[in-house]
């Protein structure tokens, strides 16, 4: 399986994301934001955390309209997998690949700690190795993770079982404690926590590695 | 030609930054502030010479990039 990891100016989790993908057995290509196309045969695009374009205008807004942005949207539209982590989640919501928006944390504070997450659905490649209701430990590090959506949109996410992860103890004020959501076809996944920072025993948790392993296995079946 | 775009959070969207400003004003002794909303102002220099063309252009820019219309509203002024 082939993964592509995008680097924007200000991305700072791109290398870690490459290592996590490789750890799960993916063949990874690193892509620069000025490229307008993805390499042939890419199965999953990883949009990493960081502060793309300095978080200017709105977090993720400028990255979403960058040259590679259009290629990522096309990849998703033809049924490709996209994993957006932290700033990457902000970028793919700005692209319109996922509904809603990530606003400033309700506390106005940057939050950086390992949090407990509830696995709400296992009906996605990303969460396929977990058990429904399982609690996992993954770090968060963000200032704008307060997921916000209108009432109809939230109901739709709930009815379609698209809320994949929720916080056990909400660190940012996000609606319905949302930490990560899936697209309609369950192939685009955006989450604020950093699974690539919980991918080796040395990190203190390998729950993130299980997510990449699940993706590898789930995609192979798809 | 110049344009000024004002981007504000839509009514009903909680503005934590505005709230923090309101609290700070209260602690400075400004007792009469019942609400604060924070937004942004973007000024553009345009090559367009007709106001109508400029306005249409800037509106398209707002829809595409300058505002996230899920939570923000915008106002365009041609100066």
TrEMBL record, chain A:
GO terms for biological process: 'de novo' IMP biosynthetic process. The active site is at residues 86, 194, 196. One of its GO terms (molecular function) is phosphoribosylformylglycinamidine synthase activity. It is found in: Cytoplasm. Pfam families: GATase_5. Pathway: Purine metabolism; IMP biosynthesis via de novo pathway; 5-amino-1-(5-phospho-D-ribosyl)imidazole from N(2)-formyl-N(1)-(5-phospho-D-ribosyl)glycinamide: step 1/2. InterPro entries: Class_I_gatase-like (IPR029062), PRibForGlyAmidine_synth_PurQ (IPR010075). Its EC number is 6.3.5.3, 3.5.1.2. It catalyses: N(2)-formyl-N(1)-(5-phospho-beta-D-ribosyl)glycinamide + L-glutamine + ATP + H2O = 2-formamido-N(1)-(5-O-phospho-beta-D-ribosyl)acetamidine + L-glutamate + ADP + phosphate + H(+); L-glutamine + H2O = L-glutamate + NH4(+). HAMAP family: PurQ. NCBIfam families: FGAM_synth_I, PRK03619.1. Part of the phosphoribosylformylglycinamidine synthase complex involved in the purines biosynthetic pathway. Catalyzes the ATP-dependent conversion of formylglycinamide ribonucleotide (FGAR) and glutamine to yield formylglycinamidine ribonucleotide (FGAM) and glutamate. The FGAM synthase complex is composed of three subunits. PurQ produces an ammonia molecule by converting glutamine to glutamate. PurL transfers the ammonia molecule to FGAR to form FGAM in an ATP-dependent manner. This is Phosphoribosylformylglycinamidine synthase subunit PurQ. The gene is purQ.
TrEMBL record, chain B:
It is an enzyme of class 6 (ligase). Its EC number is 6.3.5.3. One of its GO terms (biological process) is 'de novo' IMP biosynthetic process. It is found in: Cytoplasm. One of its GO terms (molecular function) is ATP binding. Pfam families: PurS. One of its GO terms (cellular component) is cytoplasm. InterPro entries: PurS, PurS-like_sf. Part of the phosphoribosylformylglycinamidine synthase complex involved in the purines biosynthetic pathway. Catalyzes the ATP-dependent conversion of formylglycinamide ribonucleotide (FGAR) and glutamine to yield formylglycinamidine ribonucleotide (FGAM) and glutamate. The FGAM synthase complex is composed of three subunits. PurQ produces an ammonia molecule by converting glutamine to glutamate. PurL transfers the ammonia molecule to FGAR to form FGAM in an ATP-dependent manner. Belongs to the PurS family. This is Phosphoribosylformylglycinamidine synthase subunit PurS. It comes from Fuscovulum blasticum DSM 2131. The lineage of its organism: Bacteria, Pseudomonadati, Pseudomonadota, Alphaproteobacteria, Rhodobacterales.
